[in-house]
Design brief:
Oligomer: single chain
Radius of gyration: 17 Å
Strand content: 25-35%
Shape: globular
CATH superfamily of the largest domain: Fe-S cluster assembly (FSCA)
Order of helices and strands: EEEEEEHEEHEH
Number of domains: 2
């Protein structure tokens, strides 16, 4: 999807989007023009009206895109319980709309505990943080993590908790992400 960067787009229908970095909902109007600044994890960040906005993958059609199929949704364990690799793969499709690195490689996921419930499913409890406590996109990022992990086969319930201890810092970013961000 990297080839979509800076692609000019015209909004095909009215659609709700999220204003970055504040997290407010706005309505994009049919016919408005913008350009893609980030296309990762199935969602799109677009510069439009002088602002960055995030469009959910389910609304990709408004800019002429087809929603991505996520292979992690099909990964199964033979006992029907959640596949831990699939949970981590799902979280790796979640991005801060301003940073082209997933939340796992940014070091935002502090823990992911999986417990089996009596009904044969799995309860997943995730503790994560943000790059800054005042981030207006925090609820949206946590919600995306919850929604994508809930889509993993065998998941019965997901809880995502934003935590601030320990405070996030750049040392938590993986080496590959640092390389991608030009920090090495």
């Amino acid at each position: 999807m990297y080839n979509d960067i800076d692609e000019k787009v015209i909004i095909d229908r009215d659609c709700e989007a999220t204003l970055i970095p504040f997290g407010n909902k706005i309505t994009l109007k049919k016919g408005e023009e913008g350009h893609i600044t980030q296309a990762l994890g199935g969602s799109y960040t677009i510069m439009i009206r002088g602002n960055l906005v995030r469009i959910e993958g389910k609304d990709a059609d408004i800019i002429g895109k087809i929603p991505e199929i996520q292979p992690w949704m099909e990964q199964k364990n033979t006992d029907g319980r959640v596949n831990e690799k699939a949970v981590w793969d799902a979280m790796r499709t979640c991005y801060d709309p301003e940073i082209p690195v997933n939340v796992v490689d940014l070091g935002l996921i502090y823990s992911c505990d999986i417990s089996n419930d009596e009904d044969g499913g799995s309860f997943i409890e995730i503790k994560m943080t943000l790059t800054a406590p005042g981030c207006g996109m925090g609820d949206m990022i946590a919600s995306e993590v919850k929604q994508k992990v809930a889509g993993v086969h065998g998941t019965s319930d997901v809880r995502v908790e934003l935590v601030w201890d320990p405070p996030w810092d750049r040392s938590m970013i993986t080496e590959s992400a640092k390389l991608q961000l030009g920090m090495l």
